Amino acid sequence: MEASGGIDNPAFVPSSPSFRRMAPEPRAEEEVTSTSYLSGSPEEQTPPSGPPEQSELPEQSKPPKPPKPPKPLKPPKPLKPLKLPKPPEPPSSKPRERVQVQPVELEEGLCGWGNFTPAYLQRWNNPKGYLFYYCLLALTQGIVVNGLVNISISTIEKRYQLSSFMTGLVSSSYDISFCLLSLFVSFYGERGHKPRWLAFASFMLGFGSLIFSLPHFTSGKYQLASVFKDTCPLTGFNNTCQHYITSSLSNYLYVFILGQMLLGIGGTPLYTLGTAFIDDSVPTHLSSLYIGIGYAMSVLGPAIGYVLGGQLLTIYIDANVNMEIDITEDDPRWLGAWWIGFLISCLLGWSLIIPFSCFPKHLPGTSVVRAGKVSQVHQDNNITKFEDAEFGKSFKDFPASLLILLKNPAFMCLVLSTTTEALITTGFATFLPKYIENQFGKSSSYAATLGGIVLIPGAALGQILGGVIVSRFRMSCKEAMKFAAFSSSAAFLLTMTLIFMKCPNEAFAGVFQPFKGAESIGNITAPCNLRCNCSRSFYYPVCGRDSLQYFSPCIAACTASDKIEHQKVYYNCSCVGQKKRLLSTVEGDVIDAQAGKCESRCKNLPIFFAFFFATVVFTFMSGTPITVAILRCVFDRQHSLALGVQFMLIRLLGTIPGPICFGIAIDSSCVLWDINDCGVRGACRIYDNPKMAYMLVGISFVATRTPMSVGNTFPKRPTVDH
């Protein structure tokens, strides 16, 4: 147009060759072209609606050149997109595509069964509703597995004539079952219906509890043994070695093992699929809070189990049978109703089957939550495998998926840190009552109560605090790992301070102090009690008026006993030395000894509790951040399998060997063993307190060095937005 002297008509400007080059471009550029009409002059904002040469040529003064007008008439075709009066799409197109990139197969449905989806059930169809029932299931599992089983094991041992090795096998059956099934359940359950897996877990927890209580109803009534005399007989008697005759009651061992393994089957989906379902359903910053609350409830479960089981043991074992008994709880022959708690747990477990079965496969909004998350997975060549939607659906993919996890350095460091934490916590949880009992001279029941007061609230507080802190500061994977490393380091330093709160050995006749008239130590048999022929398998400590502690009234050579205000006292004790304190009855009889241990001279118990409580809080504070970091550093489709591997290794390297290592360390500090009439060594009765403290702190020192460096292991790689 410029080269010729033709008509200067603005209608021909869009028909230039430059517009012809823009026509084939994508839709986004067409939208930019269309917006140019809206931003120009009023004349340019009105797009041409018809043939320009017919509508505007007659108004011009100069005649147009005939050959040139047809050429610019062809391009108006590309202007057809202007007929779509839609607003510009670039701002909203990206988010829409991001949501569609994530799972198309997510089944987000209503709460109910099939077509039965009443409106009142939909108020539970959200992460908070699921968390409520998850906490109830975790609470039930903690009550039965870590509470009732532990507090009932000694009663079961006496009732069914089981050895300590057999009861230890019963306790380990849960972990064995968990280890065998955790990988397969987590692998297959990842793509399955996780809430229904938890409904199955509820059924198995109830069924396992029922099976565990079954021996009580099939073994008949409990037969009381003859009364045992604890004083020195006036005329000596000869102890005879009577070998233990295996009773048919010991065959119930296999029923208890079966019950524990069923409980293990029920516990496997809870901490693998159940935890992964929480993480899938809530945003990243809330995931740690929800998981921390769930883990805290699993810690409160054992506390409730101990309290409930302790109260039930005050009821006679055959409470379901109408019979009169003439013994009290103080009698060594007393056995409590251990089986009632397992029936209650059975009902609690089965009551959760219906709520879990009505949840959909994915909660509403899961797709949006997943789309908004940023994966911080360790980057390597394996990412191409997870681009295949079919990967992980068949068992042939299981070895490859497992190998990917084992080659993930961040994941393995996190898992190893949890195993060392589990080794220490299970070891201390198992032997803390024994440690308090021997270090501070408390009774076994009082020591167990104090241990529960420190462990349970401290563990629950640590789990909740860890989740709240990670959620409040919206920590990334690396920040959560650094926070876990800080918590473990603080727990490590606090553990080291426990070495300064040990107690000296108490005055014990024949062990740390000689008997009256004797010079040597290391033997509880002395000339003063030689005529009594006392059994070393009957440990019933008494405190003499000379402030020495004696193994039993018989070892103290006491010949008479009485009860004064619910306190058993002893007279005429030949081995008790000169009076250092005067105890007498109303009648004027001198009391030589009274039942129980002497009052400890060590006053470090309050300081020990304060520091140990802080140690427990910091130890469990790292639990939730580590779990969150594990879920962030693995692929989405490996969440359940990653938790399965974690809990399997926790049991193989933590909870199973933990009590064994602590038990070996404590046994190495034993100075007086229980030896029965046949010469067979039994349990340890007296420990060397300083040596015990050094051994336990030494194990903690070795185990806690691993998690201290976890925070620096996360690879500095780019994250993947998916």
TrEMBL record:
User: Where does it mainly reside?
Assistant: membrane
Q: Name one GO molecular function term.
A: transmembrane transporter activity
Q: What residues does the Major facilitator superfamily (MFS) profile domain cover?
A: 130-722
Q: Keyword set for this entry?
A: Cell membrane, Disulfide bond, Ion transport, Membrane, Transmembrane, Transmembrane helix, Transport
Q: How does it sit in the membrane?
A: Multi-pass membrane protein
Query: One Pfam family, short name please?
Result: Kazal_2
Where composition is biased (Pro residues), the residues are 61-93
Per the similarity annotation, which family is this?
A: Belongs to the organo anion transporter (TC 2.A.60) family.
Q: Which NCBIfam families match?
A: oat (TIGR00805)
Indicate what this protein is called per its UniProt record. Answer: Solute carrier organic anion transporter family member
As recorded in Swiss-Prot or TrEMBL, the protein's gene is named LOC100030497
